[in-house]
Amino acid sequence: MLIAFFITCSCKKDDFSPKKYEKSRYDSGGIHLYAKGGEINDVDKIDRFIDKIKSDFASFDLDISLDSNIIDYNNADFTFELIASDRACFTLGNGQVREYTLKREDGAIYFIQDSIAETTENIAYDEVWAKFKPHIVSTEPILLGQIIRYKPSIYAYEINGEIQFPILSFMGVYMPSRTNSGYCEEVHMRVQNSMSESFLNRITIGTYPSDSIVFRESRIVFSEK
Prior knowledge:
Layout (H helix, E strand, L loop, with lengths): L18 E9 L3 E5 L2 E3 L2 H14 L13 H6 L2 E7 L2 E6 L4 E9 L2 E5 L4 E6 L12 E8 L2 E7 L1 E7 L2 E13 L9 E8 L5 H9 L6 E13 L1
């Protein structure tokens, strides 16, 4: 959920002409299956692949559905305002206000927290599928990996004056990194990210011939008030 990324602080405007946005619609997005050779449009093959992944995860208590992105749209109870060329304020449904640094890069918008989080990287699962990565502050080597300190972010696109937040659900079998010699089978539901074009290209050209992934990327769309 987008709300999970918020931090609390006060908002102060500068001379920038502010723009306020509110939730206007949900774009579901299509289901896409990629394997060696490119995208597969055969509906039966898509359904069989999805059923196979669901069967493999049947013993887990998971709600696996590419239709679940709508949940995050329904839970997105906030408005936001661009208050400066590099700052944005989000107002939650309960009236709380949170502020982010705003950065535009490669056609996308990054809403970046000022606080720093850290994680221990698992070298076998490095999220090669993710288009957006958080801003890395520092890394510290440890046995079999490293500690990564980063600023959590919310990712969005600005298209025709609208701000669109991507929500990604996918399931697949793929080689997670060049340092790992085995395939992994994964499902991720409602991730606030986009599918990496370079990852899809890797699958298409068959860098790892057994790579296959099916996904739906939806958009929570905000329009200027």
